[in-house]
Design brief:
Blueprint (H helix, E strand, L loop, with lengths): L3 H6 L2 E3 L21 E2 L4 E6 L5 E5 L3 H4 L3 H4 L4 H19 L8 E5 L2 E10 L2 E8 L4 H20 L3 H16 L3 E7 L5 E8 L10 E2 L6 H9 L2 E4 L7 E6 L19 H10 L3 E9 L2 E10 L7 H42 L7 H7 L3 H4 L5 E6 L2 E6 L4 H14 L4 E4 L18 E8 L2 E7 L4 E6 L6 E4 L2 E4 L5 E6 L8 H54 L1 H15 L9 H28 L9 E4 H11 L1 H6 L3 E4 L4 E4 L1 H17 L8 E6 L4 E3 L5 E10 L31 H11 L3 E7 L3 E9 L5
Parallel strand pairs: 25-27
Antiparallel strand pairs: 1-12, 2-12, 3-4, 3-7, 4-12, 5-6, 6-7, 8-9, 8-14, 9-10, 11-13, 13-14, 15-16, 15-19, 17-18, 18-19, 20-23, 21-22, 24-26, 27-29, 28-29, 29-31, 30-31
Helix pairs in contact: 5-6, 5-9, 6-9, 9-13, 13-15, 14-15, 16-18, 18-19
């Protein structure tokens, strides 16, 4: 055993948290590291690797006649022997991870019932005297067997909770057992209760969320059972060897963990002497508590505690089932309304939404008192609804708030800011965006309700001459809830969402119908335009060209007749100008005819050698090049997929265009080249294309005209400077479009121009 001198030489310290805690800072109180425990048991913490006792409560000597000074720093095996160490090691290997089985140990000749859990690098062992009896075990068995009868004898969740409250009271003997349920804001309601006849019932009372602060709720999620056997206990400090800074022990999972002084004062104000709390966890959230109160000292054996904890787990396992049963009838009725609405066969017309809006099933769908549809700017309403203008304003507000999605609330006034008039006669809404600024909104009116609080929730803190304290009044306090509708239930929300989805399909059908009608009208217009164009083509081909030929014939006879010398010079000049104009008009008509006859069809596409096309054009235009002393050079060009005579006309237009707009100060030079490999062309939807460029040294043009020069009848120069109809480059663009490609141009005034053609790679390539 440790000598007296060794004990005196060892430096130890307690880890009690001595920060002053009051109601101004209790929300940040570190309740998981109080540094002390309740005195109905003792605690040691063993190193996870060496099983040395690193922490020990100051009351160990009261249970095993060994003080914390004698225990700290020693190995568990050395103090308590091989048998106890072997049982502990086996428990760690087999059961410790479940945190539910009871560990029984004989320590220094005394029997203890223990719990064990891992906290950081330490195993926390909490020991309480083993006072178990055969009666306790029998009661546990009988109570566990009652679960099956609970399932058979109840249909609603509240009925089940009531039976479990009574069963828990029967097995534990507490004066009061409550099933406490939280709302979404963590205000609590006594949902079920079993209590002694001589005490006032709390059933139906509400408690504000401030009664259980955030960090306490977080601990309830970690540690499912919390026990206080004597509310007036004196905390027992925990000691450790003083061999490091900030040495502490997390007691989140501890059974003996000391309680916050604020919570102790709160319970004392209620007159409670002992408590047990069991967490009810549903889908990872603290759904509620089984809260047990006794008005004097009260302790339970670990078996009884475990049985009570199983009661809580039984409740949470049944929440979904019972709520589903309760919601079944509601879901059945909403589904009937949904089926009737979906079975209505209405034409895809805007008038159909008026028929939908007045259908009574639309209100039954989610038990609403009003509904509005906003479709293509028109408002259709039924029942208790805002004005048309307010429907539009509210729809826009909720569309922005929900990010053009869905939204529901039973307290609309919290979301409208200064637009309180939107809430006139309305408190609850379900909003669904239907896309394109369309929406459907269901409405509910304000429902005045009375909530019974255990004390005024606005006076949860009491101030007196000694400072701030938890409230000490739990007398019935009634509150009238305003500006709130009945809560939307999940089956109602589901039905609304399902029908909104169906309504979107109806709107899509309407839009498709409208688009179809629009395209039908456009098609008729296009047919008329094509017919007119054919007439223009006929006129251009026959009716207009015939008078032109007569004008040209008459003017030529006059100019070159035997009486030519008798015609005055001014008349002769007029005849020549008339003849030139007639030639220009004839050229224009021919170009227009060519432009309009180009068809977007691949029926006549075939491989075309661009080098052969260039050679043919160069041969045909030899005299024109010779006259201007020009040259044309072509590198190796690809074979493309297209219509041969159109591509020849395309190349001819570009080459002769470059020759026409040559610079008089230098001999015209035209260089034709192609990219080594096909390139991606954004204008052709990133299809691989051959890029063929025509570069000349002509007069060029300003960059801002790079796109407009391809518009029909666009000219950058007067007719007196350069002859032409203004159709040539527009014709080139249309030919390239026919081939699924495009044409671009760049130019520098006084230096020249480059025209680039992008021919998509053919299907065989």
């Amino acid at each position: 055993m440790t000598t007296l001198k060794a004990i005196q030489d060892m430096k130890i310290k307690d880890i009690v948290n001595r920060d002053i805690v009051n109601l101004t800072n209790c929300e940040h109180e570190p309740i998981h590291i109080p540094g002390s425990i309740q005195p109905h048991g003792f605690m040691i913490a063993l190193g996870k690797e060496d099983f040395k006792i690193n922490f020990c409560s100051a009351n160990s000597h009261e249970f095993i006649e060994l003080s914390h000074e004698q225990l700290l720093g020693k190995e568990f095996k050395a103090v308590f022997g091989d048998l106890a160490d072997g049982i502990l090691q086996e428990y760690i290997r087999s059961f410790a991870s479940t945190n539910t089985s009871i560990l029984k140990l004989n320590l220094q000749g005394q029997p203890f019932q223990c719990t064990l859990h891992l906290s950081g690098d330490n195993y926390v062992l909490e020991a309480e005297p083993d006072t178990n009896s055969v009666k306790d075990i029998t009661d546990v068995y009988n109570q566990t067997a009652s679960f099956l009868s609970y399932m058979n004898n109840t249909s609603t969740l509240q009925e089940l909770c009531q039976l479990i409250a009574q069963g828990t009271r029967d097995i534990t003997g507490y004066d009061r057992v409550m099933v406490y349920r939280f709302d979404k804001e963590y205000n609590g309601e006594v949902f079920a209760e079993a209590c002694a006849d001589n005490i006032e019932p709390f059933l139906g009372l509400h408690y504000p969320h401030t009664d259980i602060p955030v960090q306490a709720r977080e601990l309830y999620l970690k540690n499912l059972l919390r026990l206080i056997v004597d509310i007036n206990y004196k905390p027992v400090p925990i000691f450790t060897i003083d061999d490091g800074t900030d040495k502490n022990l997390d007691l989140s999972l501890s059974i003996l963990r000391s309680t916050s002084p604020i919570h102790v004062e709160y319970l004392q104000n209620m007159g409670v002497g002992a408590t047990m709390t069991i967490s009810l966890i549903h889908r990872g959230r603290l759904w509620g508590l089984i809260a047990c109160h006794h008005y004097s000292y009260k302790n339970l054996t670990p078996e009884i505690r475990l049985a009570s904890q199983l009661q809580g787990q039984f409740i949470t396992s049944q929440i979904d089932v019972r709520q589903s049963n309760e919601e079944y009838d509601l879901a059945r009725r909403t589904n009937i309304a949904l089926e009737k609405l979906n079975s209505s066969e209405l034409p895809p017309l805007i008038e159909s939404f008026k028929i939908i809006s007045v259908n009574p099933e639309l209100l039954k769908l989610c038990n609403a008192t009003g509904v509005s549809l906003l479709i293509s700017g028109q408002v259709f309403k039924n029942g208790l609804s805002p004005s048309d203008e307010n429907v539009r304003i509210l729809s826009e507000l909720l569309r922005d708030y929900s990010n053009d999605s869905t939204f529901y609330t039973d307290k609309l006034i919290n979301f409208v800011g200064d637009l309180k008039e939107l809430c006139e006669n309305i408190s609850g809404v379900i909003y669904h965006s239907l896309g394109n600024n369309n929406s459907i909104i269901w409405y509910r009116p304000e429902t005045l309700s009375e909530v019974h609080w255990a004390g005024n929730p606005d006076k949860a803190i009491v101030k007196d001459s000694k400072g701030l304290h938890p409230r000490n009044s739990f007398n019935l306090w009634k509150q009238i809830i305003k500006c709130r509708s009945n809560e939307w239930l999940q089956p109602e929300l589901n039905a609304a969402a399902n029908y909104a989805h169906a309504l979107q399909k109806q709107i899509s059908m309407l839009l498709l119908s409208q688009e179809e009608e629009k395209y039908r009208n456009l098609n008729e217009t296009l047919k008329e335009a094509n017919a007119e164009l054919e007439n223009i083509n006929w006129i251009s081909t026959h009716d207009l060209q015939e008078p032109l030929r007569k004008i040209q014939l008459i003017s030529s006879k006059l100019m070159y007749s035997e009486h030519e010398e008798q015609i005055p010079q001014n008349v002769m000049d007029s005849l020549k100008r008339m003849n030139v104009s007639a030639d220009r008009m004839q050229t224009l008509l021919v170009d227009i005819l060519k432009y309009t006859r180009i068809k977007n069809s691949e029926d006549s596409f075939e491989p075309v050698s661009l080098n052969e096309i260039v050679n043919e054009i160069a041969d045909e235009a030899r005299e024109a090049f010779h006259e201007k002393n020009g040259t044309i050079t072509a590198s190796s060009l690809p074979t493309v997929y297209g219509v041969p005579f159109l591509i020849k006309q395309l190349f001819s237009n570009i080459i002769l265009n470059s020759l026409k707009y040559s610079d008089e100060a230098r001999n015209p030079q035209i260089v034709i080249s192609a990219s080594d490999k096909p390139v991606k062309n954004a204008a052709s939807k990133n299809r691989l294309s051959y890029a063929v460029s025509f570069t000349d040294n002509g007069i060029g043009f300003e960059p801002q005209y790079a796109d407009s020069i391809f518009n029909i009848f666009t000219r950058l120069h007067s007719v007196s400077e350069y002859k032409g109809s203004g159709v040539g480059l527009a014709l080139c663009k249309k030919i390239m479009q026919t081939h699924g490609g495009n044409i671009t141009a760049t130019g520098t005034p006084g230096e020249g121009s480059t025209f680039t053609l992008y021919f998509p790679v053919g299907p065989s390539e």
